[in-house]
């Protein structure tokens, strides 16, 4: 018989996340899923789950849950104190939690989001093929509240016990490579230089939808209206205030402000751990082009 989790302390924002909701952009449905995918995958692997099992994604202040049966857990992502019935437990390691015990993941000591995996995964009903909470379209389970009860699935694999788990520490400076386009020609040459040379900082208004920036304004060369276009994960949209916005997992599927560039998806995990005020540097990348001979060449940005 599968067990359950009782939410003792929901924390500032704790959501259920898996690898995301794919193939529904035509319906206006974002991908969602864990913002720090490597941390989500590691937590699942440590407890013997498949990568697509649902975990808890906490924000800054952690979470506390009581289990109705014995379960194996692992906490990864932002480092945080882990306690079981008020006794210290290991972080980034498979840990046994007895039936009736309270697992308490405290406030992050660095970074922003921790990931809590349970053997068997969190077995809420999938919506459009995913168990992820989508804060933009309000699909999937609602963010956790005190007193909620969550079902657990049946464990299928075996926990991995290791002396060391490799992980990337939350950044002291967020460095994001950028492929310019498709609308970089809507900005002045000075704006493109500013994007690559200036220092920005993460705004406190950031969330799972987008990482918002404080810093210099990117001046537009074209001031007309832009018809809505498709948006992609990692797109850097520039609204009328001129301050770039980096889209994350819950971003809209279309938008009407120009996208100056795109951060490759593989480099977005660090953005999940970016706390307000963290320095940000964009690094525009060279893009391939076809030369007159038909061979691939390189062009500047």
Low-confidence stretches: 290-301
Question: Helix count, per DSSP?
Answer: 2
Spatial order of strands in the largest sheet: 12-19-16-17-14-13-20
As a percent range, the share of helical residues equals under 10%
Strand content: 25-35%
Mean pLDDT: 93
Terminus-to-terminus distance: 58 Å
Structural class: mainly beta
What is the overall silhouette?
A: elongated
Instruction: Give helix and strand order, one letter per element, not per position.
Output: EEHEEEEEEEEEEHEEEEEEEEEE
Count of strand segments: 22
Describe this structure in words.
Helices cover 7% and strands 30% of the residues. With 301 residues, it is mostly beta strands. The strands form five sheets. The chain has a seven-stranded mixed beta barrel. A six-stranded antiparallel beta sheet has the order 7-6-9-4-1-11, with no helix packed on it. Strands 2-3-10-5-8 form a five-stranded antiparallel beta sheet, covered by helices on one side. A hairpin with a 5-residue loop joins strand 21 (287-290) and strand 22 (296-299). Mean pLDDT is 93; it is low at 290-301.
């Amino acid at each position: 018989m599968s067990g359950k989790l009782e939410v003792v302390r929901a924390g500032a924002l704790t959501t259920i996340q898996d690898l995301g909701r794919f193939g529904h952009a035509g319906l206006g449905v974002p991908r969602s899923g864990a913002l720090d995918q490597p941390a989500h995958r590691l937590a699942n692997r440590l407890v013997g789950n498949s990568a697509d099992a649902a975990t808890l994604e906490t924000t800054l202040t952690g979470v506390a849950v009581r289990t109705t049966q014995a379960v194996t857990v692992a906490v990864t992502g932002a480092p945080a104190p882990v306690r079981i019935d008020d006794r210290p437990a290991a972080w980034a390691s498979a840990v046994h939690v007895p039936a009736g015990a309270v697992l308490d993941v405290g406030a992050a000591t660095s970074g922003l989001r921790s990931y809590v995996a349970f053997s068997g995964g969190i077995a809420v009903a999938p919506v459009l093929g995913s168990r992820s909470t989508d804060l933009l379209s309000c699909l999937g389970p609602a963010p956790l509240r005190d007193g909620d009860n969550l079902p657990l699935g049946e464990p299928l694999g075996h926990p991995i016990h290791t002396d060391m788990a490799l992980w990337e520490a939350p950044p002291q400076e967020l460095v994001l490579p950028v492929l310019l386009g498709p609308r970089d020609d809507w900005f002045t040459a000075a704006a493109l230089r500013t994007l690559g040379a200036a220092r920005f900082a993460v705004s406190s208004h950031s969330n799972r939808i987008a990482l918002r920036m404080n810093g210099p304004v990117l001046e537009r060369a074209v001031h007309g209206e832009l018809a809505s276009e498709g948006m992609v994960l990692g797109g850097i949209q520039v609204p009328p205030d001129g301050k770039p916005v980096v889209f994350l997992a819950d971003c809209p599927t279309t938008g009407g402000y120009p996208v100056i560039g795109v951060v490759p998806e593989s480099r977005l995990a660090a953005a999940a751990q970016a706390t307000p005020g963290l320095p940000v540097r964009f690094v525009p990348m060279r893009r391939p082009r076809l030369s007159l001979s038909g061979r691939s060449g390189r062009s500047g940005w």
